[in-house]
Amino acid sequence: MSRGYGLIFSLKVVFTFLSLPHPPGLQGSLDRLQLEYVDIVFANRSDPNSPMEEIVRAMTYVINQGLALYWGTSRWSAAEIMEAYSMARQFNLIPPVCEQAENHFFQREKVEMQLPELYHKIGVGSVTWSPLACGLITSKYDGRVPDTCKATVKGYQWLKEKVQSEEGKKQQARVMDLLPTARQLGCTVGQLAIAWCLRSEGVSSVLLGVSSAEQLMEHLGSLQVLSQLTPQTVVEIDALLGNKSHSKK
User: What is its main location?
Assistant: First the structure.
């Protein structure tokens, strides 16, 4: 596969104690992608049975072998990321550069309160995912589950239950409350949600899930919305959501 200009390739691996020091399936994934290396390899969820030192050594090995340029974490706690960084410094290994975290209107605390501290202390950035909360933040549900949405796909029963739960209905109501703000900015609620995620300090990119080129282009329109997200607009969004993260100090 040719590396097009501006493209960044990444892979995600899951560690178990038995798989160390070689992350499982990494070479096979590279072969399927027809790539010799990826830009970033993510360690998905810290395995409590795998010593942190061994995980950091394994990721350092991956980079030294030329299989990846950098490594990051996915769904790790701030404490685990800090431990990995400390291990890297102690043993002259390579530390993680970013954390992949869920972030959207209804999942805020980690990206807004925990990761910025790591960004300032050790330079670990954030790559966030699920900006539309698996489709909840699109106003397409409106209290029901359309036949064509992801919630009807096999394996996504949990999403259907989420949509139909009391909490899910409350979140859908908040999405509908945001429609006037989106219209004022000349965008969709989905574009507003993605731009809102991009505004967070330390967030370098937001991962998008699309099923068509048209959907991708629509989501990319959020870049035009980002410049319109003034502090006052963000305050108004926070007031409508009613769930702004606050320091526990």
Answer: cytoplasm
